[in-house]
Write a structure and sequence with these properties.
The protein has about 280 residues and is of the alpha/beta class. The protein has nine helices and nine strands. The chain has one domain: Rossmann fold (3-Layer(aba) Sandwich), CATH 3.40.50.150. Helix 5 links the parallel strand 4 and strand 5.
Length: about 280
């Protein structure tokens, strides 16, 4: 399979060599088949195949040897997640001792892992779910990365930066992949639609627990809460950033950012195959 329109620095932008990937993760081998065009690929509606593929991609970094997490947690697509890291690099530039705050790091700890492997950045990862933090800590420890990544728990689901940022914290950037949906029912409806498009066995490919998938008020509410809280900690990060899935959320976010005193507001498009999303970044 060939990934299209990834960042020029993305190591996966020229497609996958499945022979090499099988060496990195032998458990991928049973899922690799030739398609009707005589190209090697996997069945992307099979969540186990997708997970083993992404493990292999991650294992292409010498820093990462183990990446285990429960099946009910979302399996992040490594090439797309790596794009966020490369675009963040363009924002923070050549600063030394770069430190990133990852809001909602999740059980997979994927952004800290990629940021350490690609640029040797330092990370603080946060999450509200204790089980996710426990799993992420296991991954950190298994790969001997405790000197590069530390975790903090958010105890109040209404807060994003409050209760996390400490007085002496100073970050090069904050990053975030916010929940998309307003409720469990909305998330389940989207799951059913995606499953129908890919086949009946696709349900678990779109699994995910509460804090990964939905937030009261949905993505828009989350983003505006995050934006407001960022204005309370203006001096503690050079940039505040987030993925934004819904284009219609951009306009109100930009207006609110200016009202709160942001001096720069950037929209960075991400075009990955058929999916179009974007990163927003603001600075005080």
């Amino acid at each position: 399979m060939k990934e299209k329109q990834l960042h020029p620095k993305n190591k996966f932008n020229k497609g996958y060599n499945f022979n090499d990937l099988i060496v990195l993760n032998p458990r991928l081998q049973p899922f690799v088949k030739k398609n009707n065009f005589d190209f090697f690929t996997i069945d992307f509606s099979n969540p186990i195949a997708v997970k083993e593929l992404n493990k292999a991609l991650l294992f292409s970094y010498k820093e990462i040897k183990i990446w285990d997490f429960p099946d009910e947690n979302l399996c992040p697509p490594i090439p797309g997640r790596l794009d966020y890291i490369h675009h963040l690099k363009a924002l923070v530039g050549e600063d030394k001792d770069i430190s990133i705050l990852d809001i909602g790091t999740g059980a997979t700890c994927i952004y800290p892992l990629l940021g350490v492997a690609e640029y040797s950045w330092n990370f603080v990862g946060t999450d509200i779910d204790l089980d996710s933090l426990d799993t992420a800590q296991d991954i950190i420890d298994d790969n001997n990365l405790a000197h590069k990544i530390c975790l903090r728990r958010q105890f109040d689901e209404q807060n994003i930066l409050k209760g996390i940022l400490e007085k002496n914290d100073s970050f090069s950037a904050v990053m975030c992949n916010p929940p998309f949906y307003k409720s469990a029912e909305e998330a389940q409806g989207a799951n059913r639609r995606k499953s129908k498009n890919l086949g009946n066995n696709a349900v678990r490919n779109f699994s995910g627990n509460h804090n990964e998938l939905w937030y009261i008020g949905g993505e828009k509410a989350f983003l505006h809460n995050y934006l407001y809280e960022s204005s309370l900690y203006k001096s503690q990060s050079k940039w505040f950033t987030s993925l934004v899935s819904k284009k219609e959320n951009i306009e109100s976010l930009e207006k609110s950012a200016k009202k709160l005193g942001a001096i720069h507001f950037k929209i960075i498009p991400l075009n990955q195959g058929n999916k179009v999303t974007r990163i927003v970044a603001w600075q005080y």
